[in-house]
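User: Can you help me understand a structure? I only have the sequence.
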Amino acid sequence: MLAGTVRISGLKAQLGDPASGDVLSVTSQVKSIAVKVDATDAGPIHQGDKVTITLPDTRTVPGEVSSVGQSVDGGGGGGDEDPSGEASTPTLQVTVVPSDTGSVEGLQAATVQVVFTTETRKNVLVVPVGALLALQEGGYAVQTPGGKLLGVRTGLFSKGMVEISGRGVSEGDRVVTAS
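Assistant: Let's start by predicting it. Here is the structure, written out as tokens:
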């Protein structure tokens, strides 16, 4: 049962049918996006998390996770196969709603892209991933323009950048990177 204003999504009874059972099916007027997420990647996604939605016209709008499914779909030997006949990957359904419903007002159905931000860090040093040098003894370093190697610890990787920290590394330092 949905509270408030609803949209009729289907008629279940016809004139002359017995007067028992449902007559209509209804859905919420709030537009939502159903996203199938690989079950192994869904752990860090929670109700209330902020997301970015890219619309078909390439505009981006903010949104929020309204629910994370509790039932895993697919992935078993129980007949869940994709059209190619291969076993499907286990997924959970995540429901997302745009923060500004006016931004999707003209859309009834569309393919959109949803970006989930599962972790953020503030006030960290970052370098391009191409600046990391793997050390023979293990770990990583960055190279200064003068050729000196500085050992670093890595943190989050995102969009071609990596968080680094380490002795002798500070804001504004220049490092060599692969082109």
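Now, to help you interpret it: The two ends are 57 Å apart (CA to CA). The longest strand covers residues 149-158. Let me know which part you'd like to focus on.
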